[in-house]
Amino acid sequence: MSKNLKIYLGVSYLFILFVFLYFIFIFVEFNRLDDFSYYKELQSSLEIYISTNITINLFYFSIFAVVWIALLGFGSPILIISGILFGQWLGTFISVISISIGALILYSIGNFFFRDLVKEILEQKFKKYIQLFQKNDFYYFFIFRFIGGLGIPFGLQNLLPILFGMKKSIYFFASLFGFIPSFFITNTIGAGLNIYVAQAKTFSMIEFIMTPEIYLPILMFMALMISSLFIKKKFFDNAD
Fold first, then answer.
1. 70: helix, coil or strand?
2. The model's pTM
C-alpha cells in the first residue's frame, strides 16, 4: 500500500474519532450534571429501555464499546456504564469481550499505521520490558493486564505490544483473561452506583460510600492494587 494512501486512511481514522466523540457528548446535558434528579431520571429511563430487549441492547453496547476502545477511548467509563446497565456479572462478561476485541482492533490499526512512531516514542522507555515480554509474551502480557498496565494510559497499553511484535491471538487471550479481575470489580461499582441512585432520594457522599454495594468493591479494588504492587515489583521492577 502506498504511503499517501496510508496517510489518507490515518487522517480518515482521526476524523472518525472526533466525529464519534462529538455525537456522544451532544447528548449529555452538562448544565444538569450537578442535579441529582437528572441521574435518577437517567437511571429510570435506562432501566426501562434496557429491560425491553436485553439481547439487542447487549449487542448495541458491545458495538459501541468495541468502537470506543478502537478509537483510543478510556476503558473505565465503559466498565462503569456496563455495570450500571447490565449488572456486575453480565456487565463484566460483555465488557471483557468487547474491550478485548476493541483493544485488538486498535493494536492492529496501530501496528499498521503507526509502528515506526510507537517505536520511536516508547522503545527506549520500555526497553527492559520488551526483553522481558520476549521471554514469554502471553505470560508477561497477562500479568501486565492483570496489574493494570504498569500505570500506562489505557490507549498506550493497547499499543505497547507493537514494540515486540506480539501475535494477535496471544494479544487477545492474554488481554481477555488479564482483564477479568479489575473489570469485575469496576462493573460491581457501576452496579452499586445504579442501586444507590435508584434508592436514594438525595445524594450524600457519606451514605454513598457507606453503601455495601460501593464500599465492598472499593475494598476489593484496593486489595487488587496492593497485590498488583507486589506483582509489579517481582516481575517488572527487577527485570534485567
1. helix
2. 0.80
Alpha carbon distance 185, 81 (integer Å): 13
The packing angle between helices 75-113 and 168-199, to 10°, is 160
Reported as type and span, the H/E element at residue 189 is helix 168-199
Exposed/middle/buried for residue 60 (C-beta within 10 Å: 0-12, 13-18, 19+): exposed
**Alpha-carbon distances, residue 154 vs 72, 95, 198, 218 (angstroms):** 8, 15, 31, 20
Q: Let me know if 75 is exposed, middle or buried by CB neighbors in 10 A (0-12, 13-18, 19+).
A: buried
Q: Which element (helix H / strand E) includes 186? A: helix 168-199
d(CA 123, CA 137): 16
| Nearest-angstrom CA–CA distance, 159 and 207 | 40
Instruction: With beta carbons less than 8 A apart as the criterion, state whether 141 and 126 touch.
Output: no
Distance CA 221, CA 192 (A): 14
Cell of 131: 526483553
- Tens of pLDDT, residues 83-99: 989 988 999 999 999 99
Beta strands in the chain (DSSP E): none
Distance in angstroms between the alpha carbons of the first and the last residue of the chain: 38
pLDDT digits (tens, 9 = 90+) for 71-86: 777 788 889 989 989 9
Q: Which residues contact 237 (CB under 8 A, 6 or more apart)?
A: none
Tabulate helix, strand, coil % of the chain (nearest 5): 85, 0, 15
Give dist(CA 99, CA 240) in Å, integer: 31
DSSP 32: G
